[in-house]
## 1
Amino acid sequence: MTSNIFQDIIDKKIPADIIYEDDLSIAFNDISPQAPTHILIIPKKKIAKISDADNEDENLLGHLLLVGKKVMSDIGITDYRVVINNGSEAGQTVFHIHLHILAGRTFGWPPG
Ligand code: 5GP
């Protein structure tokens, strides 16, 4: 299995500002925040990108969204944007599925 920076965070080989962790997932602050709140939620299972996910990952992907809901509820933020970049042209730079949860400023639409 190819290693990546998020696998190193899961394995606690590099530090991260971890907000939440369970058997399936881990949430931590983005190292280069694009909004006042910018949290990443990742599965512990290595899946490079959404387009690589299988039907067996249905519950896991739903779990990530519910972790996002919990984390934001716990910090008292009701309005936020959830982003998943899939592939380089879409802006993905780390090839381990992750949800970006962004909040604390007004977001434009369409996204840049
Ligand atoms: P992507 O561009 O793949 O959708 O998002 C990758 C995100 O991971 C970026 O927002 C980037 O700032 C974040 N990131 C990259 N390396 C690290 C790291 O070592 N620690 C943390 N906390 N975030 C990282």
## 2
Amino acid sequence: MQRVGLEIVGITKSYGDQPALRGVDLDVQAGEFFTLLGPSGCGKTTLLRIVAGLEQPDSGHINIGDREVTHEPAHTRRVNTVFQSYALFPHLNVADNVGFGLRMLRVNKAERQRRVAEMLEFMHIAALAERRAEQLSGGQQQRVALARALVNEPDILLLDEPLSALDAKLRGDLQLELKRTQRRLGTTFILVTHDQHEALTLSDRIAVMHEGRVEQIGAPAELYETPRTPYVADFLGLSNCLKVLSADGRKVETPVGSLLLTSEGAVGAQLMIRPERLKLEPEPRPEYNHFDATVRERIYLGSSIRYTLDIAGQSMSAIVAHEGHGRPLPEEGERVLAQVHPSDVVQLAAE
Ligand code: ATP
């Protein structure tokens, strides 16, 4: 299958006097699993609809492969969309639902049957071929919707919160399946979600959106480890933020005490520490920053424990993995030594 990328240049869109997109530029590589991540109202669905041709931008342009499609109608773009609501025909069976688009394209019956059978096999739903859509579970319906969107081999598959109606377990299973499907097909996928775990699990790269703009683009690990702004740090997981009150080279003063960084501190900047990078161990580790802390809250999360610590009157979170037979973990009210390595303290740009 041919792999096709997408270029979005200077896209703006307002509804009345309300701007939904304030100038978005993005390059999605051919064969990439790319995610638009952001809270409700940040403009991600509007951007997806513009790529699909379901909405016209006020300015800017869209190229799919080497062709500009900005003013092309939706049906001439080699793009399909999977929505949160599966939008299947309830009275048609699975095979007819999946083959519907091919029928509209007047693909002959034998070819249609071959491609539908292949796709049902590929999505592990061949056994459901004769079942009516209304007789399927939510997870099965979403597999059928995915098969229907992929059967006519789009250059780009757009996914608008496709898993958000499913329960947590099924959602996790389908996320893995979606990722494997994309890897096997090599089709460019663009996913819209407000769920950071989903974005981290699935994506090659993520664009974090904020009020109609792209705030940062990067691979999951890059965004999680080195967010540029407090907004991105916060959106991609739990974070502890500390303001730099004064700086002397790499040594800075913060509300929890002095800290050594790996680069020069900037007065007024925010420092970010992920909770799992804060170690709670009685013995000070060499080269680490150390703080006296009191455990205010201890929440059992199964594979880990989440702590709320009081450090010099500031509340900080720490997440400690269970090591099974290891030493006992601190209880509420205990005094502990919280430690963080300088390379785990990230200096963010001021907002
Ligand atoms: P959600 O996850 O809730 O769908 P989103 O990030 O996808 O949010 P959009 O749906 O793109 O955000 O909406 C961006 C902004 O544009 C919002 O302020 C929304 O109210 C507004 N908007 C979207 N569609 C329309 C419309 N058809 N008419 C008027 N305003 C709209």
